[in-house]
Design brief:
This protein has nine helices and seven strands; from the N terminus they run βαβαααβαβαβαβαβα. It is of the alpha/beta class. The longest helix has 22 residues, at 67-88.
Length: 257
Amino acid sequence: MKIIFHDKFYDTDYANDGAAEPGRMESIMDAISREKTFEIVHPQPASEEELILAHSLPYINTVRPDTKRYNMAELAAGAAIMAAEIGFTGEPVFAVVRPPGHHASPDSAWGYCVFCNMGIALLNLKEQGKIKSAFILDFDAHTGDGTKMVLSDWKECRILNPYADTSTRYIKEIQNFIKDIPSVDIVGVCAGFDTYEKDIGRKLSTHDYYVIGVLMKEFSQKAANGRRFAILEGGYYQPDLGKNVTAFCKGFSNGEL
């Protein structure tokens, strides 16, 4: 499995918020680096033409003067694009990025987000004619309103933000939703680990993330010829963030229940 990451994501001076918190990327990459089956690859920044797939030029221009924030956000979007392109080949891939993107709409953003990483990645594949349909699971503690808005005109893109109040019901909600989807061209995951039982979501365990990874692996194999990719969104409880990400990635790559 490929892990998309750039050392620039260690930088914390691009913003003053939870996603830019010092130590957050280190907690993930320290755990990832201990897994011999994971290969780390480095992304390039997204181009303006790629950002415009999801955002208006006036909005992009409001971000541009903040050079550090803009450069980090375009690198995150580029990593998402790379993840989708690798995932389209059938190889599982996870993009460890910041800032996150699922609260970024065509003309605005909130919640630490800047550009809609998932939306840009999928629209890039769609623009190339590689895909006509997609499924997105967003298991962040917050609804991915930006992703929904960016992709609102794409009827063949289905999005699930589970709302169940317990981990058992949460997993069941995912299972019930995907069983009615016979096929899609690719599966994308907005992976927000703030749903963790010790984070703000107060819901999922480390093993639950593994289970979700397996569900998405198996669903992609059944419905999308194995095409799948995931992008980091939230997740702020640093002591366990690395092991939670690793658990998901293990399930997502080759795990079994």
